[in-house]
Amino acid sequence: MSTGPATLTERPSGMKQQLSDYLELTKPKIAVLLLVCVAIAGFYASGGQPDVVRLVNVIIGTALVAASSCVWNQCLEVHADRRMNRTSQRPIPSGRLSRYSSAMFGTLLGSIGVAYLLATVGWMPALIGVLTWVLYVCIYTPMKQWTPWNTTVGAIAGALPMLMGWLAVNPTLDIKAISLFAILFFWQFPHFMAIAWLYREDYEKGGMQMWSVVDRSGTKAGLQAVSGAMALLLVSVVPGLGYIAMPNITYMLLSLFGGTVMLIASLRFFTSRDEKTARQLLFASLFYLPIQLGLLVILPSGV
Fold this sequence. Notes:
Layout: H1 3-25, H2 28-45, H3 52-76, H4 78-83, H5 99-120, H6 123-143, H7 150-169, H8 175-198, H9 200-205, H10 211-214, H11 219-235, H12 249-272, H13 275-298
Helix pairs in contact: 2-3, 2-7, 2-13, 3-5, 3-6, 3-7, 5-6, 6-7, 7-8, 8-11, 8-13, 11-12, 12-13
């Protein structure tokens, strides 16, 4: 029989494709950025001397919960994803994976993630992990179909892991913990308004009620970007306050510089509202966040 060798060679290939598809469901590129934020929050909360085991544990638990929310998001948005060019070839809308098996996979990841957080870093990070999942999957995901305010809810869910990293090594939430949350929260407005503008036609095909879709002039998307950048500029200096008599002037000046660049890019997008300025804003936001978070590591203030 000539089919034997062919079958043997096809099986590993099919299994490899399935593993690749399940990995794709978890959106690993987004998870990496999120986990860097969690690690830096834990590092900063401990004054630069974190309990490495607890830090690793909160990163693992957060990764599992975040992966679960991404999987469930794609299970719920499969019909919209089929209509959009940039998402139509994802594993579920393309038919490579079923919604049922994907949902089971997402449930398994989330259950293990919450249990892991509860067992290793305590109930507060675990509780925030559950809250993040509920906000992202049960509120933000359906909101995208009926109101452009979905970005605000999504930004809350996107910033909460900062507090998971903080609470894993420091039981007290103070103004600096809130400022870390605020930096990640406000950063998402210029970042996602640029994306929403670049992919506005795709979002419209999918029935997504983004600001760039409901207001075709782009004015409201521009205002959201500028407002977010202004708030980001203000909150980004807070971690540099340190002890009142010893503010970290270098950190604060560099934060003001980075925030000003983001604000200028947002203003240019608001006034022009074209693809060129949207790409420049997206580019600026992608550089801004890792540099801003890096300042917290190399120029820490007292906690």
